[in-house]
Amino acid sequence: MKRVCVYAGSNPGNDPAYEQAAVQLGVKLAEKGLELVYGGSSVGLMGRIANSVLNQGGGAIGVMPKGLFRGEVVHTGLTQLYEVNGMHERKAKMMELSDAFIALPGGYGTLEEVFEVVSWGQLGIHSKPLGLLNIKGYYQPLVDMVDNGVKAGFIPAAQSRLLIVEEDPDILLDRLASYEPPEGVNKWSELPPA
């Protein structure tokens, strides 16, 4: 594992614990020699984690769509910035550059990115790990929703392991580094295993 994509809010949230977690995760990434891949913004939790990595001497790679956001939002101190044509290209580039994914608290965009990565993992499009940094229980409703999907027969139980949930960034990074995807899981309960 060399690069970790971090999805995070473009706002800082209303609890200082979210910002502290972003900064702490940035420090841990730099300490472990892992480069950050993220959306390229200078504001919100996105900006906090990038600044934290850079302040520790680590590498931060941003991916930002051309013309989609105001110029002052783009982080100007990154190790590398990719400008792409739109959101689909942005997500594809972030996926290509990354060996693992972490979601800090965030809004609709962060949730959409989490579900895309986990869906693609379920379909076997990639076998990269995805972690949720569950600060102050932020992701507990999502974890409960996945558990409900398993109970209701929509998610194979083994595939609930596609989401690695931790409150501590150090433990989360260690779990991502040792991740092995579930094998031989038949996603389609009405079809025979391949």
From TrEMBL:
Coiled coil: none annotated. It is an enzyme of class 3 (hydrolase). Keywords: Cytokinin biosynthesis, Hydrolase. Its EC number is 3.2.2.n1. The keyword Hydrolase applies. The keyword Hydrolase applies. InterPro entries: LOG, LOG_fam. Belongs to the LOG family. NCBIfam families: Rossman fold protein, TIGR00730 family (TIGR00730). PANTHER family: LOG FAMILY PROTEIN YJL055W. This is Cytokinin riboside 5'-monophosphate phosphoribohydrolase. It comes from Paenibacillus residui.
